[in-house]
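Objective 1.3, modelling of assemblies. Example input:
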Amino acid sequence: MKNDGCTPRACPSSEAPVAGATAERGAPLLQLGRRPPDRRAILGASVAAVAAAATGSGCGNHRFDAHYKELTDEDKRRIFERIEAETRARTGVDVKISAPQPMDGVEFAYALDLSLCNGNRRCAEACARENNLPDVPKFRYIQVLEMDRGTLDFENANAYYEHDEVPVPGKVYLPVQCQHCANPPCVKVCPVTATWREPDGLVVVDYNWCIGCRYCIAACPYFGRRFNFHEPTVRPRDINPDQGYISNRLRPVGVVEKCTFCLQRTRVGRYPACLEACPTGARKFGNLGDPNGEVRIMLERKRVYVLKEELGTLPRFYYFYG
Amino acid sequence: MSCKKTSPTWAVAAGLAWALGAAPGCDEHDRHAFPAPPASVAAETVTVEPRTQLLPTFPCSSRCHSARESQPDKRLLTEFHTFRNTEFHHGDPAGWCYQCHSQKNIDRLVIASGELVTFDEAYLLCGGCHGDKLRDWRLAVHGKTMGHWTGNKIRRSCTGCHNPHNPTFPHLVPEAPPVRPEHGERM
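Predicted structure (tokens):
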């Protein structure tokens, strides 16, 4: 909660952040009107806090950071440095926060060969390590559904199967993660635009802007989003120091998070962690704009299937039979 | 595709049109067009992951086979390569070592044309029977690709995933499942 040394230059409206920060710390509100803290005073403090957030000063607590889209390079540098320092103080790990930008002419898409997936969940674990997912509470972005062969019955699918060996005869496996829809219902319902679709097709969340209302979780037909009901705890030795501001940095409690196709990797040319971990080679990733890329060739030559096509969400995650 | 603006929303429809052979135009339907690939994507190099250095007993010719004559007759192997007697499950059970390995040069494989290829090029041998898989593998639709999606790709060879003597993909122990959400939590 401490102020990170915001200068008057960085905070053009110096009154507003101070009032907001005072309210945030729970200090007496009397100075606002020399009255007991009644609703009007609290409202005034709230308005000041909102004004502070709206000015984009990026000072003090993260609640006063501007929306990611409104951050200047200078704001980003300051916020990233603050997060790095906070992480170092809290966990002892030196992390590097970055925000790689979308490439021109790139739209990401994912393809998964259902005839190869054998349900070993290596993808989900690699995702957890890459994206700093907590082990307590243990949730995963990738849910591997086990279904009876020939059904594709999601109602009776089991994501919590435990076997000595996979694949089990008579079962098929279908991993589900964020589908990065081109027409995403989760983005439409967000009341504060804390989640949006980037120009390269990635649906991302601004963890500092999310208010935790979970409308997006209710709207997502694929169970692609997760909520931090508890303080996420990642063991310091498990922390991945290569962190993206809108992807895999350590999340606070009370915000929604999701798969970002490993934005911090893919925007610099690498493959997502789940793809690299898949031992069967079922996962394909590439640029939908590249006519020679594996995803386009798959789309043109294979039997392609998208989940819940009838909802019109236009997923950018294609299942195919190779 | 020099269309002025593209909308990703319609890329699926454009893909369908592309697959049907209808080239997307740049008139009012230009939003159906894909974005042009960036220059960084255009130059793509694909490297096949080498295998030879991973073989524990390579080179076969100097390690063991220099000291013994090759015996082309089929028989029960009792000293070496005994896995062949029980664990060989690939194609015709009457198959024999020299169907794929070269009898003249044990460090090479022999493909249908009689040409000798290295163990790094085993996909040429596999593709002799599994031509559809070789086609898909060359297009990166089958098999594992690593490296960078922007260009320098590393393609894992057939034998990197499949044991050529028993090519069915092995069963694996799955990772532990996630924990079910607590009562009232939807996560």
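Chain B touches chain A through 47 residues (CB under 8 Å).
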